[in-house]
Amino acid sequence: MKMIDETKRQFTLVGLFAALLLLSHLVLAAPVSAVSGVIEKFSANSFDQTVQKIKKGITANRLVLLKELDHQAMMKMVGVNAKKSKSFEVFHPRYGKKIHAKDLNAFIAVPIRIMVQERGRKVVVTYQEPSALLAPYKGLGGLGKDLDKLFAQIVDGAVK
Q1: Same domain as 24, residue 63
Q2: Rounded to whole angstroms, how far apart are CA atoms 70 and 56?
Q3: I need a surface site. Which of 41, 65, 79, 82 has the fewest CB within 10 A?
Q4: What confidence tens digit (pLDDT) does each residue in 131-160 have?
Q5: Phi-psi region of 45 (alpha: psi -120 to 50; beta: other; left: phi over 0)
């Protein structure tokens, strides 16, 4: 009897482990769209044209390009031959002033990033809506929605 109970317990533990392993795989393999507010658009332009249009859109919308990261160059440093990929950190101090007045913790959510990458023969632009990034912070819903419009304009202009 004791041997049967031990066998049942082992089968239960193995089943529980298998279920947890499956669940972790499903969570880790979630598509980008499962992340709140992630927008992904395919560009009708080349990678370089899309990058130039993103930069022009940032300036045209009176935002500041704080940093440009070249993922392909970084991957080359560690011996990886990667496709073209860049991200841009974008913001403006006038919006920082609004964040400062409402919730200093929200500074962890900015600057906002826009990423341009080659995927096969396509160029994809991805960003997370500012409203999704700022949603957890008190009093910043309106700012998030205003920034959503600006970032949509920048990306929409770059992919056309």
Answers
A1: no
A2: 18
A3: 79
A4: 999 999 999 999 999 999 999 999 999 999
A5: beta
Same domain, 25 and 56: no
Instruction: Write out pLDDT tens, residues 79-113.
Output: 999 999 999 999 999 999 999 999 999 999 999 99
Side chain identity at residue 5, one-letter code: D
d(CA 98, CA 137): 12
Distance (Å, whole) CA 27 – CA 64: 35
Q: Is the pTM of this model over 0.85?
A: no
**How many separate domains does the chain show?**
2
125 and 47 in a single domain? The answer is yes
pLDDT digits (tens, 9 = 90+) for 39-51: 999 999 999 999 9
Give the burial string for 110-133 (b: 16+ CB within 10 Å, else e): bbbbbbbbbeeeebbbbbbbbbbb
- Do residue 97 and residue 40 come from a single domain? yes
Give the range of the structural domain holding residue 14, as residue numbers without chain letter. Answer: 1-30
Amino acid at 45: N
